[in-house]
């Protein structure tokens, strides 16, 4: 009778360990997916910050200033001729 009791306890423990292992594997998979998503977001943020840094440098150039002056203010360089269509 004690052998049956011990066997039942051992089987119960084996089932509990197996269930817990399955639960841990599922949680590990969830964490792997989260980690991959975070890594992708990190790379996107890095690309965005690099683009912003390039833009910050560009807006400090003479080329950008001339571009804005022409587009927004309609200014021209002294050696340029402005042609406007007749309406």
Describe the fold and architecture.
- This protein is mainly alpha-helical.
- It has one domain (2-73).
- Helix content is 79%, strand content 0%.
- The protein contains 2 helices and no strands.
- It is rod-shaped and about 110 Å long.
- The model has no long low-confidence stretch (mean pLDDT 91).
> Strand content of the residues, in percent?
under 5%
The major pleated sheet works out as: none
Radius of gyration, whole Å: 34 Å
Q: How far is it from the N-terminal to the C-terminal residue, by CA?
A: 108 Å
Number of E-state strands = 0
Low-confidence segments, ≥5 residues, pLDDT <50?
A: none
Average pLDDT metric: 91
Count the domains. Answer: 1
Residue share in helices?
Answer: over 70%
Q: List the helices and strands in order.
A: HH
Overall structural class, as computed from helix and strand content, comes to mainly alpha
Helical stretch tally: 2
- Principal-axis shape: rod-shaped
Topology, element by element:
Layout: H1 2-58, H2 62-73
List keywords for this structure.
87 residues, mainly alpha
Question: Gist?
Answer:
The protein is mainly α and about 90 residues long. The protein contains two helices and no strands.
């Amino acid at each position: 009778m004690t052998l049956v009791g011990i066997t039942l306890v051992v089987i119960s423990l084996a089932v509990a360990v197996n269930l817990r292992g399955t639960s841990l594997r599922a949680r590990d998979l969830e964490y792997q997916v989260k980690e991959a998503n975070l890594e992708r977001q990190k790379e996107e943020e890095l690309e965005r910050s690099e683009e912003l840094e390039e833009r910050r440098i560009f807006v400090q150039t003479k080329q950008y200033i001339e571009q804005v002056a022409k587009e927004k203010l309609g200014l021209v360089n002294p050696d340029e001729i402005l042609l406007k269509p007749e309406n």
